[in-house]
Design brief:
Structural class: mainly alpha
Distance between the termini: 49 Å
Order of helices and strands: HHHHEEH
Radius of gyration: 15 Å
Strand order of the largest sheet: 1-2
Number of helices: 5
Length: 106
Amino acid sequence: THLLHYLEGAKESDPNLPEAFYLYGYTESILPSYDWSTEADHFLEMSIRKAPGSPFADKALELLEEQITFGFTGSSGTNIPPDKQALLQDLKKLVKSHTSPKNKKS
C-alpha cells in the first residue's frame, strides 16, 4: 500500500515515477487474482509511457507482453485481440525510438 500511496501523491515530474509504476505493475502481476482483469497492465503501460528510454521500460514491456499473451492463450491457442496487438506494437515502437544504439561498430 505504501507504493500505491506514493503513486497517488507523486508529481508528474518525479524521476522515480516510471520505476514506481513498473514495481506496482509487477506486484499486481504476481499476486493471485480472482478476477480476469488486474491493474497490472495499466501500471506497466504507464511505466513505459512515462520513461520509454529507461531500463524499467524494457522490463515493463517484457512483462506486459507476457501478461497479455498468457491472458489470451487457451486450449484453442493464442488469440490476442487486435487492440491489444496494436497497443504492444505502439509501446515497442515507443521504447525502440528512445533506445540508444549499444556498442555500435563502424
